[in-house]
Amino acid sequence: MKIRDINTRSEQAMQGNGYHWFMGYVKPTHEMKSHAELYQREFVSFLPVEKVRRKNRFAPRNAPKYVRERIVDKAAFAGCIYFAMPRFDAEMEWLRLRDAKIFSSFVIQPHTGRAARIPGNQMQAFVDFNRERFSDQEKPANPFKIGDNVKTIDAALAIDAEIMALNGNRAVVEVDFMGTRRPVEIPLDRLEKREA
Length: 196
Fold this sequence. Notes:
Elements: H1 3-15, E1 19-25, H2 31-40, E2 44-46, E3 49-54, E4 66-71, H3 74-77, E5 80-86, H4 90-100, E6 105-106, H5 120-133, E7 149-152, E8 160-167, E9 170-177, E10 180-187, E11 191-193
Antiparallel strand pairs: 1-5, 1-6, 2-5, 3-4, 7-8, 7-11, 8-9, 9-10
């Protein structure tokens, strides 16, 4: 089962107000495995992931790229899984979770020694941010093509030029600089089409 499908169940659980959210630690490379195990044991959990398209280095040149899920920011979320406990009958759920032996530790409140609860509005904002940023929606097509006349937006040096080449999310334009024409790469989000 895909991690995003598991996360969808967590998002549905957030719509109701019957859960408290917590964060637990697992072994640093076992996040996805532990997340799937929590799902199998019918716990509600959330793991921030994104889809990455990669090409198999042994595949032919024209082979399609395969899609893989990975944790959003490995440095920030290494070994972390967010999980929910019901507001009522939580004692039995904590015992079930302890018996599952998935987590090595939890984020603990100072002075009380109990697991620190994440406020529901913060967790909802975190999930919404993750959904918006890493949604499966296709990015809008590049509005520029080679030969378009463009100008820079809010740049220190205003440039009016023609696109000579496109490199991913950058355009190569020729600029007249001190009497010579030089190619310059400019990000596409800094350009707009010049009206003829």
